[in-house]
Design brief:
This protein has helices spanning 19-30, 68-77, 110-120, 125-146, 153-156, 159-164, 174-178, 185-190, 211-219, 229-241, 284-290, 302-306, 338-348, 392-410, 416-419, 428-433, 479-496; strands spanning 11-15, 34-38, 50-53, 56-59, 88-90, 96-98, 103-104, 222-224, 245-247, 252-258, 261-267, 272-274, 277-280, 313-321, 330-333, 357-361, 375-383, 420-426, 466-468. It is of the alpha/beta class.
Length: 508
Amino acid sequence: MLTGGRGDHISINIVGAGPGGLTAAMLLAHRGFKVRLFEKANQVGGRNAAIIRNGYKFDVGPTFLMMKFILDEVFEEAGRNIDDYLKSVRLEPMYRLQFNDIRLEPTTEKEAMLEQINRAFPGNRDGYDRFMTSEKRRFDLMYPCLQKDYATFSQYFSKAFMKAAPNLSLGRSLISVLGDYFKDEKLKFSFTFQSKYLGMSAWECPGAFAILSYLEHAFGIYHTIGGLSEISEAMARVCREHGVEIHLNTPVKQLVIANKKVRGVELDNGEQILADETVLNADFGYAVKNLVPPGILKKYSPEKVDSKKYSCSTFMLHLGLDKIYNLPHHTIFFAENYQGNIQDIFKDKVLSEDLSFYVRNGSVTDPTLAPEGHSSVYVLVPVPNQKSEIDWAIEKKNLRDRVIKALIERAEMTNLEDHIREEIVFTPQTWQDMNIQYGATFNLAHSIMQMLYFRPRNKFEELDNCYLVGGGTHPGSGLPTIYESGRIAANLISKQHGIPFQSKNQQI
């Protein structure tokens, strides 16, 4: 560990109170830094916030909590026990996968999982054991690579990466890798839909991301009572206990930059708040185009940022219902022609006639999400991002009605329209209006050339005294990796200033 004093003489500005910014704030404040956090909204959380309407509570974004051990570690490293702040429930089965003719309910209980596979997909049982064994090895090798900062090219070719490289399935897609374990196409889909967490097609997603489904089966899926937005609220509570100044309703207009060094932030009201270091938790594409004065960036100029590959977007319905339907906590409904549906979204960038969608019926687990006897339902439909030519002013109502029809017919939510008491619709335009580049809900795509060293780095390579956290930077999209981005940034800043810290991330 490092040696040195506390960091109370060192000031940190953090732009954005999403999960990455909150993680960095709570860790840095615990280590004694003077931390200010600026958030444009009236609440913390960013895409991990909540919407509350007449007693119905909806998570804005994430609803799956996986790799919970990272979140536990972050709280521990901030000097807190997560169980004092949050109550989490492990879901078994984890979710339901519904095809037109087959239903699967994956579980972390091995024998039950093998029995399900054998019943639904005869002849594929042995592949599950091989999958768990091989992907555990891959994860054990990859995880240290995801925890590194990649500030220099030499770090890319670290000992950890060179050891992992032969196991990355470079040049192979996720669907191809799953073919090593399973013969049945629908069973492969059951272990590839997780690529949607990255906003990518399983036919384009790098094969190494087979570890995503492994992580679910190895470590389980959790729900946080009150919704996953409670994680952000708990982090904010820890931040305030450590003296973080959280400024809500305080948009940042731009970074204050001199000689390629970030000196602080300029608020919308013209006030400049200077600091020794600045952490950016805004959407990466939006941040470099709007928060950095023109002409400063070269590698990430507006033109080059626009040319990057971006994830898909999402069409979402939040429904407050006056009844609770008999549907699991999580259900994924696959289109009949799933590959065609994926091609529509990612390649052709059109609205698919054959929808895949996800439903969180959280009230079957968590009665706090809605009034007694009522339910809060979250529906997500992957759709093309704003690089498409879809006019959402025209398509919003049409797709909403199609989704309602699909819920009635496929999710067996009979008479659904009669039970809707609150309704909120999100389109890609909604996400774009929230300062998310191209409405790409899952940020920059996770292609090989936009990962690790080739993804925007936690210590921003184009500006000094500037650090990046969030889904658009390394290690990538999804709550666990966003927490890790905040931890990496906090550890880099602490190391830079000689401030001692204890961290389970031993790669910094």
